Amino acid sequence: MTRFFIALGGNLGDVASNFRSARHCMAQLPGGDILQSSRLYRTPPLGPPGQPDYYNAALSLACELDALALLDALQGIEAAHGRIRGERWGARTLDLDILAMDAAVVETDRLSLPHPQLQFRQFVLRPLCDIAPNWQHPRLHKTAAELLDALLTRGEAALPKGVAW
Question: How far apart are CA 99 and CA 128, in angstroms?
């Protein structure tokens, strides 16, 4: 089985409930096992102005799917939770992104792993550090904790402590 790190985000509806439901759905995937879940963080929106704050979390998932099959499954879970793909970085009920697949590098037309923006986003790194601070980025050769520390050293304000979901 392969271990994946998944980012969860959303800012419409009952986000915590959507996250719990999505976690349950991921556990039902072939060989699915949720290994760890981060805390839940509230973050300002990255995209268009006027949308509600986001909630972000991460989890580690072991499953038998390959990366592209998992991507398809996650998009199906998003759709089942009312996700409508429209405006880039717009408001959404549920966003599931594959952050990494163990220490593998994947490059296809549909998927790049590790996620190409991971090292620039505290709302991704903070939850990832809750569950895998020592995960090492296979291209940058830095741990998740080191990547988060680099953001904070550059002056980005630390996210408030998250809550259980």
Answer: 9
Question: Any idea which residues carry the catalytic annotation?
Answer: 83, 92, 95, 97
Tokens 């419409």 sit on residue: 12
Residues 6+ apart with CB under 8 A from 148: 122, 125, 126, 128, 129
Alpha carbon distance 154, 6 (integer Å): 25
CA 97 to chain centre: 5
Rounded to an integer, what distance in angstroms lies between the CA atom of residue 23 and that of residue 82?
Answer: 15
What's the pTM? 0.92
Residues constituting the chain = 165
Tens-place pLDDT, residues 91-109? 788 999 999 999 999 999 9
- Domains of the chain in start order, with CATH, are 2-153 (3.30.70.560)
Question: Which pLDDT score, from 0 to 100, does residue 87 have?
Answer: 61
Q: How far is CA 109 from CA 28, 69, 83, 95, in A?
A: 27, 14, 22, 19
* Per-residue CA distances from 33 to 2, 14, 41, 132, 150 (Å): 10, 24, 23, 16, 31
